[in-house]
Write a structure and sequence with these properties.
Number of domains: 2
CATH topology of the largest domain: Glutathione S-transferase Yfyf (Class Pi), Chain A, domain 2
Shape: globular
Strand order of the largest sheet: 2-1-4-5-6-7
Radius of gyration: 22 Å
CATH class of the largest domain: Mainly Alpha
CATH architecture of the largest domain: Up-down Bundle
Number of helices: 10
Distance between the termini: 21 Å
């Protein structure tokens, strides 16, 4: 899979722009704040990732404009021509099309054009709250098998309903509340057990690759470990929900379930969040992304486009070279603020961004 061209209108900082990408390595170079990342973000959105910077959809629309348009043309599975069109709007639902045919949900784009995004924000996968690592796991499930994205959507919908009921109960499980709570508990247990199982299985499959990528990028400095941490024991979620019902009613929220789980990350046997250096944390975050990319390639037989946003920051020359060595083959689009590329970076296409203009050449 690869992206051939990208056309934007009123997206982020761009009024109107069109750029072409090499089938190999494209480097986007320019000072910070000039719109380099915006180009990668638009490609990622067209691939169903949303904003890999965590921005809401309306934040992607240029200030003062009612809507923004992304048009991304490329080659999909079997080298078939693909045209993905997205219109983001402030006051109405977004509109999305694939080869002129409307699609209803953003997750429907995931199987059309696959992309793996690496960004400075990935550091928060290691340093940040458990919710970020849960999102990473659920995004990985959707990337490996797009139909699995429904598990997280179903979980969120059930939790909203169950938590609303718990708040309305005001700490008391009257007859009607108890009966309705039984219904939502059964739904939550069914989805929750499956989601935990899918997460655990995928993490177990990725663990050897996470360790291998980390050792390579860190130049054999230490070992990395990943462990799935569940909010309930090895039994069924239905039993855990029954055991915590009184507490859930008291707190008016669901205290156990996959929405409370985490992935524990360690380097050299110590928690990476608190004991690792910034460079080690960055290396581990890159290893997490590379492992997901490898699973997508192995299970779906596709080569995602690699979107590499400022990946050399906080990596010394040795780690930067090791990262480039471990990247899988295929199309790569990277950004850097440095006017001098690392010696190991030999782009097929160079795009210069600055002063509101974009120019490209070999």
């Amino acid at each position: 899979m690869r992206v051939c061209s990208l056309s934007l209108r009123d997206f982020r900082s761009y009024t109107e722009i069109e750029v072409d990408f090499s089938a190999g390595l494209t480097a986007i170079v320019g000072p910070n704040g000039q719109g380099k990342t915006n180009l990668l973000e638009a490609v990622g959105f067209a691939a169903g990732l949303g904003s890999f910077r965590g921005a809401g959809d309306t934040a992607l629309i240029r200030d003062g404009e009612p809507s923004a348009v992304i048009r991304c043309s490329g080659l999909g599975a079997g080298e078939r021509d693909v045209l993905i069109e997205v219109e983001l709007a402030r006051t109405r639902p977004n509109r999305m099309k694939v080869n002129q045919q409307p699609v209803a949900r953003r997750r429907d784009l995931i199987g059309v054009l696959s992309a793996t995004a690496f960004s400075p924000e990935d550091l928060e996968l290691v340093k940040g709250e458990p919710a970020l690592r849960r999102r990473w796991m659920d995004d990985a499930l959707a990337a490996v098998r797009p139909s699995w994205a429904a598990l997280r959507s179903d979980l969120d919908r059930i939790l909203r309903q169950r938590n609303t009921l718990l708040r309305q109960a005001q700490g008391r499980a009257s007859g009607d509340v108890a009966v309705t709570l039984d219904v939502w508990d059964a739904k939550l247990a069914a989805v929750g057990d499956e989601l935990r199982e899918r997460r655990r299985d995928l993490l177990a499959a990725m663990e050897p690759e996470i360790r291998r990528h980390y050792r390579h990028i860190s130049q054999d400095h230490d070992d990395a470990d990943v462990v799935y941490v569940s909010s309930w024991d090895e039994g069924a979620l239905a039993d855990a929900l029954a055991a915590t019902r009184t507490e859930d009613l008291r707190r008016s929220t669901s205290t156990v379930g996959p929405h409370r789980d985490d992935v524990a990350l360690k380097i050299g046997g110590l928690p990476a969040r608190s004991h690792a250096s910034q460079g080690e944390q960055r290396s581990l975050a890159l290893a997490l992304r590379l492992a997901v990319d490898g699973e997508v390639r192995a299970r779906r037989g596709v080569a995602p486009v690699l979107l590499l946003d400022d990946v050399f920051s906080e990596l010394d020359a040795g780690r930067a070279a090791a990262l480039l060595e471990t990247l899988p083959p295929g199309q790569r689009i990277l950004t850097t603020a440095s006017p001098v590329l690392p010696a190991s970076v030999r782009p097929d296409e160079l795009i210069r961004v600055g002063d509101g203009t974009v120019s490209s050449g070999p």
